[in-house]
Predict the 3D structure of the following.
Amino acid sequence: MAALRRALTLLVLAAALLARPAMAQQILRDAETEAFLNDISAPLIKAAGLDPRNAQVLLINDPEINAFVAGGQIVWIHSGLFIAADNLNQMQGVIAHELGHIEGGHIIRSSEGIKTATGITLVSLLLGAAAMAAGGGEAGMGIMAAGQQAAMGKFLAFSRTQESSADLAGARYLSKAGISGKGSLEFFKKLQNQEYRLAIPQDDSYGRTHPLSGERIAVLRDVYEPDPAWNAKTPPELEERFQRIKAKLFGFVSDPQQTMRTYPDSDRSIPAHYARAYAWHKAAYPDKATAEAQALLQMKPHDPYFLELDGQILLENGRPAEAIAPLREAVRLTNNQPLIAVLLGHALIATEDSAHFAEAEQVLRAAVAKDRNNPFAWYQLGVVYERRGDQARAALATAERYSLQGQQELALRSAEAAMAGIPEGTSDYLRAQDIAMAARGMLSKKKKR
């Protein structure tokens, strides 16, 4: 029985190695960061032969230096990796590699690796059981153990092959996009240094899901150095955007004291002001956070993301009326960017002034029309409807929110309440009906499990 349990553990482990579920971690939604990731990934997505409308690069709050794909066409970048990258070129090397997994269909094909490993495990179990039944207890246990080791080795070899394939595919995309592979090699050297610190043996990658970084560097150097794009330079404006977003992210996710050590007051650069603004805001020093935001606006008065930051600090420190002006301007300058528009809608509602509610509804409806996948936007829209006495549409907005959050029972209840008050056949009624049907389906599957 112990051998059987170990064999089953092998199968579970193999499945777990396929991907880390992004939804188990906090997705970091930020207008500036998402616009930047779209811009830097667009040439690579095109080079990979993927549709830019379907492929996407998103950020999650995780300190590990890692990135992954988990089905679909989304590359998930850890905040730890973004911060660890020294420059944009390193980040693009990582994105290119992950796109190689998508273009190669590796998540789907990983089932082949599990299937092979499972077959080896089952055969070893049968042979071991037969030996034990014939009186060879120790021999049977040995057969099972050897089978498990062979199965895991087979799966890990399959995984390493996929990683090597993604490395070469990423190199191809970088070349086609005219982007240097220097950053890719630099980042693998970072990973190699990490392997040294962890005392990982460097003579053989057997037993690992990824090839050793030294092995990858050796292969990729021969690919990158002769490439015409080897000496290509990163556009300065893109590098500037990378450095300021990296600092902004550092200030958001790091301990404020660590931020102050990394970006001391003596540093008067834009990235340093940005990092300190978030750190002071996080540490509940609104006056200091506002001072940093104002320093940024003195350098770039019409930067929409600095205006957004100024408005966010004011709003989240109980001054919504003062937040409206900078947020309105940020929304205008970004052509109604939905995440910033939701912040403006929140400020308008938070004033508790009914004169602002009509504008709040207009802003929030426009925001969810562009981005339906923001639960907070639906929450704010529900508040507007409730304030004006439209309980049915407040229930519909609540149903949208619960559906996005995976709370199907509450989504169903809210959708049914919406249908009871909205005229049949209207677009809002049909949307509530769709949410109710989807929720019932999910709940039914859950019961069957």
Remarks:
- Confidence is low (pLDDT under 50) at residues 1-24, 108-132, 150-158, 202-209.
